[in-house]
Amino acid sequence: MATRALVALSLALAVPLAGCTASRSNTDSSSDFQGANALVASTIEDLESAASKGDEAEICGQLLAARLVDRLSARGKDCRTVVKDALDDADSSNLTVESVRIAGARAVARVKADTGDRDRIETVGLVRERNRWKVAQLPRT
Question: What is the mean pLDDT of residues 12-16?
Fold first, then answer.
C-alpha cells in the first residue's frame, strides 16, 4: 500500500481511530463545541467509536472522504481491508478534540490522544462532502 499503508493508516487511523481495542473516554468531547464545530468534532468521535467496534464499513462508507478512500484503495486492496489491517495493528488510546477550525468546506481538528505513555496532539483534516464532515487527511503530529 502507498507509503507503508499511509503510515499504518496514519498511526492506525491511529490516533483518531485509536485501534480496535480502543477505550473511549467517558466524555464525548464534541459536546464542548457548538454549531458546525460540534459537527466536525462529532465526526472524530464517530471515527473513534467505529474504530473501537472494528466497523470498517462505517469508517470507509460514512466517515472518510471519497478521495481518501480512493487513496487507501490505490494498490489493490479495498479501503475496508486497509482499515481492518490498520486497526488490527493499533494500540488503544483515549481521544479528546481540543480545537476545531473551519474555513469554508474544509476544517482542521486538533485531537489529543492519551495513549497511556504520553499525550500526543494530532491534526486531522476534514472536508464537507455530501452535507457531512468527513476525514480527508489522516493525523499528522
Answer: 42
